[in-house]
């Protein structure tokens, strides 16, 4: 009888462990749901930056992004990750139909260059910002997603 109880509880324990492993995330996967927030722009210099990417190693397309603490902490260290951004401010501001994919190179709180606005989730390089919106605006409403 003791042997059967031991076997029963052993199987039950293995099943519980399997269920726990199945339900718990094994990685820090990024939530695929797009978020809405504000974005500003910043101009050179783009180095030094929180990702410690030197000028010679920055992506030649000039499409860079700095993220706020919430986005930075969401992935642990997003350096080199991509963020897809779409302006949703309105027709007088946005270049509709344009999505932008920028490389995360900096952390908003550690930027060397001053952003055009401070109360934002993302700060895009001037080239990136200008490709989706009128760059005469200090900030815009955007939909974005970490890739």
UniProtKB/TrEMBL annotation:
Domain Expansin-like EG45: 48-147
Keywords: Signal
Stored InterPro entries: Expansin/allergen_DPBB_dom, RlpA-like_sf
Superkingdom as given in the UniProt entry: Eukaryota
Keyword NADP: no
Signal sequence residues: 1-29
Protein name, as recorded: Expansin-like EG45 domain-containing protein
SUPFAM superfamilies recorded: Barwin-like endoglucanases
